[in-house]
Amino acid sequence: MSAPDGPLDPRGVRFAAIVTTVVLALVLLSGSGWLALAQTLVFALGAFAGMRFTPYGVLYRLVVAPRLGPPAEREPAAPVRFSQLVGFVFAAVGTVGYLAGLPVLGIVAIAFALAAAFLNAAFGYCLGCEMYGLLARARA
């Protein structure tokens, strides 16, 4: 991964989770491997380049954030980037499934990614961030 992002506005992270939830639901409804590929690329940008480079992050910064006050708190970027990596893996598997004519693989992998995105969008619970914390404690 490249240089880490600075602390993140948790509202931006949640906004990205909401958009991701919508996109992944559309993938499941349409069965579109190309839309799954687009979301996979968004996850890749977040995981490997940083959240500030994702289209959802840019949209939040340019359109949504100026209409809000400053965030009350910020959260570290590393757990969020790890969650983007996990999303990337599931979305990549789902994309391969859809584009290779294995729709069950696509559906299952995208459904897992959708469940994680929905937990963050609806409840502010970042499953990948929790996994990051567990792995960090296991390493220590």
From TrEMBL:
User: Which segments of the protein form a coiled coil according to its record?
Assistant: none
Which top-level group of life is the source organism from? Bacteria
UniProt keyword annotations, A-Z: Membrane, Transmembrane, Transmembrane helix
Q: Name one Pfam family in it.
A: DUF4395
List, alphabetically, the InterPro entries matched. DUF4395, UCP030042
Q: Which residue ranges run through the membrane?
A: 12-35, 82-101, 107-127
Q: Which residues form the DUF4395 domain?
A: 9-137
Know the name of this protein? DUF4395 domain-containing protein
Species name: Pseudonocardia oroxyli
